[in-house]
Amino acid sequence: MAGGVEKCLTLIGFSVICLKMVASAKTAPEIPTIDQAYSKISNSITVEWATVPGATSYLLTAKDGDTVIETMVANSPGTVTGLKAATLYQITIRSIGAAGRSQASPPTQAKTVLAAPILEVSSPSSDSILVQWEAVYMAIGFSVSIMRANGLGRIWKENTTNTSLTFTSLEAGTLYTIKAYAWNANGIPGDDSTCNQRTSPGAPANIQVSFNSGALKASFSWVPTEGAFNYTVMALSDSSELSCSTTFSSCTISSLQCGTEYLISVLASNDAGSSKSSSAVTLKTVACAPGRVIIQEDPPGHLSVAWSNVDLGDYYVAFVKSDDGLEVHCNTSLTQCNFLSECGFTYFISVFAYNKAGQSPLGDVFNYTTAPCCPSDISPVLVSSDRVEIVWSPVRGAELYETKAVDGYNVVECNDTVPACTLSALECDTKYNITVYSFSEVRGSNMSCTSRFITTAPCSPEINVSKDASSMIKVHWRSTNDDATYTVTAQGETGLYQCSSTGESCTMGALPCGSVFSVTAVAETQAGRSLPSYSVPLETVPCCPAGLTVTQITQSVINVSWTIGMVAQTYVTVLESHTGQSKCHTHQNHCLLGCITCGVNYTVALKAISATGLTADCAHQSYSSSACCPLGVKLYRLGPNGIRIYWQASRGSANYSTDLYGSKGIFTCVPSAGLSFCDVTEIPCGDVYTVMVSPVAETGLKLTFCPKKIYSVTCSGSTLGMVIYRGKRNPE
């Protein structure tokens, strides 16, 4: 240990006084006589003499070879200074007065004492002081003494012929006074040198360590050491050296490194040097924060946190805090912890190492975002033939939803930020596997979401409409849907008519005549209803007129009449028998048919025809034409007031009625069945009568279209005889 060195020097001064001898007329004083000359200090000689009367001063001279040193003094004793140590000088003295100076006295020899040794002192240890000096001219030995500077305690004195001496068993940190001198062969001591030297302090004891794990600093304290001016605390590790210095008995070292073991020692120092190191104590800092943290989620719902081992780590605690504020932790001596995790959360993860010193500093805080949750309540709100609208509840962690509909080969997708999706351009009556994936920017898509099957509504049928002979409406389609029920609807002004079938056709009857319908069909399955098919217009046949009436106008002409039927624009009347057919096409509500053969059974048919050409076969009824008008009508006189009307009956059996129209009245008779004559009695004579014999229809209606004949009935002549024929009249 380096100690302070103090050099003790003895200065030898000298003065030279030059005296100028001035001649004086007066007598100089007497020559002094030297009593003795001696040296007590190595740079001076002291001279004693008897006083000379009249002398006001004295000149002392010391000569060493060519060197002369003079000193003016006032009286005895006087000292010559500036001399060399251990040197023999010739000493003379002169007295000086007002008249001048005397001659030099007889010389006397005197030798200066030895020079003081120049000391270099140090304290190599807390209980020793080393004194060193250079050799002193003419010295054969040295005397060195030491004592406490405060005068307390004993004095140690050592004689030596060496130029160094060590005093041991001293008190640490104490200031000592060292005195040394040399002596010559005669044992005469020389000048002495005095120095003060403090022993270096002792090593501090009872070192206490207080470690602040959060700030990575440590405070040290110890028992104060005697004589210590400063203290230095050293903290040594394999990779660093830290220290702090203080004048007090405590000190703090900051910026310690985590995971490091330090050897702590304390040095006390003063002007003499430093103490030995105190007994080292060990300081283990907190472990460093674990690094290389690896976070994995496998399988989903299980979070694994692993890290690297760290020095001085006794055990580890991993903290996992979710973004909803819930925190869990795991305490382990291993380097891995497992946690349960939930979808859609961001977890903030930190790992600390612990030892007796405390908790490691906070390392990196890692965040791990789990995959967003999967929608679980996917519900279709609309299913049509080519479109499916689905909704679901928002799920945690989802920033986007990816919806995919797969039917085996084709994929339809839609992406949106809202929990709803409309999948369009789908195939009708197709089963789709629909999956909604939740997506977040951090974790991507959650591919573990489950799917559900949704079948689109059935395809719209393509229909054909036909009518059979019985006017039943039959609707056909090609079945392209699985397990579908088809409903056909005929919508018109007169109402709505439907039929249903699970096959490929259905039949509707009893549609009102004379109506226009729009016919559509829809298919329905458990998935929903299809869109209506394209409508097919359907016009029913016109309504048949009511009240068909056949009236015979003449023997060969009949009139067929009816009420107007709905929608019918024209009518066709057909009169048909074995003898032939008669037809009439008209837009009116009646029709005349000629070329009728009397006494023949006919079939009367009426057809109603719409503007589009649809024909309704209406009434079919039998009609018998009237019996033929009789031929050869003649009148015979039966007495004065009787007339017989006679005729020739036509083919077939018929009933007849005879009418005589005269100015005096109308006379009618009806013959018995099968007879061809009829008698009218009580008819006045002398009048002209119009006679008409008419067939009587089965209804009892008497036909009036047979020809009329005019006869004159006179009152003269025989009671039997002809009636005069006067002419023929057309029937009106």
UniProtKB/TrEMBL annotation:
Superkingdom, taxonomy of origin: Eukaryota
Domain Fibronectin type-III: residue ranges: 28-115, 116-202, 203-288, 289-373, 374-459
Signal sequence, renumbered to the chain: 1-25
Keywords noted in UniProt: Signal
UniProt xrefs under InterPro entries: FN3_dom, FN3_sf, Ig-like_fold
Protein name: Fibronectin type III domain containing 7
Species in which this protein is naturally found: Microcebus murinus
